[in-house]
Design brief:
With 343 residues, the chain is of the alpha/beta class. It folds into 2 domains: 27-155 and 308-337, Medium-chain alcohol dehydrogenases, catalytic domain (Quinone Oxidoreductase, Chain A, domain 1), CATH 3.90.180; 158-283, Rossmann fold (3-Layer(aba) Sandwich). The protein has helices spanning 3-21, 25-28, 72-79, 149-152, 156-169, 186-197, 211-217, 246-252, 271-277, 290-301, 318-326, and strands spanning 31-37, 46-52, 60-70, 91-92, 96-104, 116-120, 132-136, 140-142, 177-180, 201-206, 221-224, 237-242, 256-264, 280-283, 309-314, 333-337. Strand 9 (177-180), helix 6 (186-197) and strand 10 form a beta-alpha-beta unit. Helix 5 packs across helix 6. The longest helix has 19 residues, at 3-21. It is globular.
Length: 343
């Protein structure tokens, strides 16, 4: 081989190595770890994977997620209960997050990089079971100063559900009486405290193991549903908050005073039963609301609402977290720890 030929080959080889060293647009794309589903099914369809990190649009905020709440609706979405909403796979589940603002879109005015926030994440953007998530200003609020991120992640969906059921829908006021079914759960534990903060009398139901817990939350009357019928204790209440449905809802019509209201989170109250008892009824679907989330945060910082986290799991164990939530016997909330608490 001639020297000229060797030099030509070496030059070509050098150019090839230089090209290999230059990162491609694809390899330069930031990635993140997330738990996703590629199909509907049981807990085993949850997969821990690397995905491209989302980029905020003009009206979006990119949040570095420190913790994400786990809710019963996560399992419902995973199983295909809302398949008619036609979300594209892969889907990142999780509607509750607490974290730090990483980046903001050009139209965002309420938040800046470094702000601590908590939010109800719309799955139309990207869910909370991930190292990063997208939210809008309507979905996020400043994190309560008195809470760790793990605690803050337990708040948004369940607290907003309780608020929108009792305050927005039922118009619960001072001196009224409310019956809260499932008082020891995520929604129930917030509902008791929100009702007490409004000056209402609270009757709440739970199992034997949670009777003291109901009293600690502020319930005036705690009913052990395994030992007594709630309708033997609760009579002529102004509001019923139903998170159980089925027989519990059927038996609730008769305990509401005329002109009162049943708000159900799981079923539509029967119009015929409402008319028969002279009461109103509503089925509630919670919506993100940054102003209400901010009000809830203030009550937390004023020590009027306690946040109860019963268990935490690392992100790769989202399957275990969902299985625990599905038992229906979780006290307070279960949270995924995704990153260390910022110093």
């Amino acid at each position: 081989m001639t020297i000229a030929r060797e030099l030509t080959l070496l030059a070509a080889l050098g150019a090839s190595l230089t090209l290999l060293a230059i990162p491609t647009a694809q390899s330069a794309t930031p990635t993140m770890k997330a738990v996703v589903i590629h199909e509907y099914g049981g807990p085993d369809v949850l997969k821990y994977e690397h995905l491209p990190r989302p980029e905020p649009q003009a009206d979006q905020v990119l949040v570095r997620v420190i913790a994400a709440g786990v809710n019963p609706v996560d399992g419902m979405i995973r199983s295909g209960m809302f398949a008619d909403e036609k979300r594209a796979f892969p889907i990142i589940l999780g509607g509750d997050i607490a974290g730090v603002v990483e980046k903001v879109g050009s139209k965002v005015t309420k938040f800046k990089s470094g702000d601590p926030v908590f939010a109800y994440v719309s799955l139309d953007n990207s869910g909370g079971y991930a190292q990063y998530a997208l939210v809008t200003e309507r979905e996020a609020a400043p994190k309560p100063k008195s809470l760790m991120y793990v605690e803050a992640a337990a708040v948004p969906i369940v607290a907003l559900t309780a608020w929108q059921a009792l305050i927005d829908t039922a118009k619960l006021g001072s001196g009224q009486t409310v019956l809260i079914h499932g008082g020891s759960g995520g929604v129930g534990s917030f509902a008791i405290q929100i009702a007490k903060a409004r000056g209402a009398k609270v009757i709440a139901t739970a199992s034997s193991a949670n009777q003291d817990f109901l009293k600690q939350l502020g319930a005036d009357v705690a009913i052990d549903y395994t030992k007594e019928k709630f309708e033997d204790v609760a009579k002529d209440v102004d509001v019923v908050l139903d998170s159980i449905g089925r027989d519990t809802l059927v038996r609730s019509y008769g305990v509401v005073k005329k002109g009162g209201i049943i708000v159900s989170l799981v079923a539509s109250p029967k119009q015929s039963e409402l008319e028969k008892h002279g009461i109103r009824g509503a089925a509630l679907s919670v919506d993100p609301n940054s102003e209400e989330l901010n009000e809830i945060g203030k009550l937390i910082d004023e020590k009027k609402i306690r946040v109860i986290v019963s268990q935490t799991f690392p992100l790769p164990e989202a399957m275990k977290a969902q299985e625990q939530v599905a038992t229906g016997h979780t006290r307070g909330k279960i949270v995924l720890k995704i990153a260390d608490e910022p110093k």
